[in-house]
Design goal:
Elements lengths: L5 E5 L4 E9 L6 E7 L11 E5 H4 L2 E4 L2 E4 L1 E3 L2
Antiparallel strand pairs: 1-2, 1-7, 2-3, 3-4, 5-6
């Protein structure tokens, strides 16, 4: 799956902005770099995260239905 830069919604409802793609310098695993679009007292406002591309593009089961972990919005 190609990951486009832009806004995504996590299956739990929060929004994130994909700001880039990266590679792990040791393993060359592809990573998605994304930023939270909500305030968080636990992790800091607009925290930046990385997740393996395969996991970012994966599906999760919710109510016996497979849905994208992150859904592209715009």
């Amino acid at each position: 799956m190609d990951i486009k830069l832009g806004k995504y919604q996590h299956f739990k409802g929060k929004h994130y902005q994909v700001i880039g793609l990266a590679k792990n310098s040791e393993t060359l695993e592809e990573l998605v770099v994304y930023q939270a679009l909500y305030p968080s007292t636990e992790f800091g406002d607009q925290a930046i995260w990385v997740r393996p591309k395969k996991m970012f593009a994966d599906f999760v089961e919710v109510n016996n239905e497979l849905i994208p972990r992150f859904k592209f919005i715009k």
